[in-house]
Specification:
This protein is of the alpha/beta class. It has a single domain, classed as Rossmann fold (3-Layer(aba) Sandwich). Helices cover 44% and strands 12% of the residues. The protein is built from eight helices and five strands. It has a five-stranded parallel sheet with strand order 2-3-4-1-5, with helices on both faces. Strand 3, helix 7 and strand 4 form a beta-alpha-beta unit. Helix 1 packs antiparallel against helix 4 and helix 1 packs parallel to helix 5. The longest helix has 23 residues. It is globular.
Length: 232
């Protein structure tokens, strides 16, 4: 494993990358959410596409949360394909944030960025760039990661590394993020918006799932890519 990946590993919970979908039933999910999920996965064109699936607010922790269970099932289904798949199930730590992070939301956002960046690198190292510009960009990404410390102090460098790595991914890839709304706050809004913009430009098939509203996704997603269900 590369030094860059080892640095990132200390600041996110690897168990949040993929959750069990045991016992999941499509019948427990509103049909319009299921339909849009299937429609996205069945698209065969080369253009990047994204959807936001929003269900009613739910304080229940996953996997009892049905929308998180849908995301977990989608992750596990796509894991069986040869298409690179990145995912993360966002959460807020019950413990106080580490020194350098002003809030639990910031710490959760750092974990999201580092977890996705770690998965980006795993894919890039599997098929490393052969051209000089690509190798130079990868070197710049690794250099930025070397200075990261898991706090808001180096968040700008983390997002720069994230952007650089995202543009080195293979064309066909899938990314699923659950619970982005949990990370929203006055000190994370702008950075979350930046993250969503990067993903929408570089991920072939991108899915967000939330149990409740999201000011970030409401701002960054196109209305036609949002599916909202207000009842059980």
């Amino acid at each position: 494993m590369s030094n860059a990946m080892k640095i990132l590993e200390g600041f996110f919970d690897s168990q949040r990358i993929r959750l069990s979908s045991e016992g999941f039933r499509y019948s427990s999910i509103p049909p319009q959410l299921v339909r849009r999920t299937i429609d996205l996965l069945n698209r065969l064109d080369d253009d990047c596409a994204s959807i936001w699936l929003q269900w009613i607010p739910n304080l229940v922790e996953d996997p009892q949360n049905n929308i998180s269970s849908l995301a977990a099932n989608q992750v596990n289904e796509t894991h069986r394909t040869s298409i690179p798949r990145m995912s993360y199930f966002c959460s807020i730590n019950s413990q106080d944030p580490r020194e350098g992070n002003p809030s639990k939301e910031v710490e959760g956002f750092v974990s999201l960025v580092y977890a996705l960046l770690h998965q980006f690198l795993a894919d890039i190292y599997s098929f490393p760039p052969e051209d000089a510009p690509g190798q130079s960009r990868l070197g710049a990404v690794e250099q930025r990661i070397s200075g990261l410390d898991g706090t808001a102090r180096t968040l700008h460098e983390a997002l720069s590394a994230f952007d650089g790595a995202a543009h080195l991914l293979r064309m066909y890839n899938i990314c699923i993020i659950d619970g982005l709304h949990l990370l929203e706050g006055p000190d994370t809004h702008d950075q979350l918006c930046e993250l969503v913009r990067i993903l929408r430009k570089t991920i072939w098939k991108l899915t967000f799932t939330t149990s409740g509203g999201s000011s970030v996704l409401s701002k960054e997603m196109d209305p036609e890519d949002c599916v909202k269900v207000d009842e059980e």
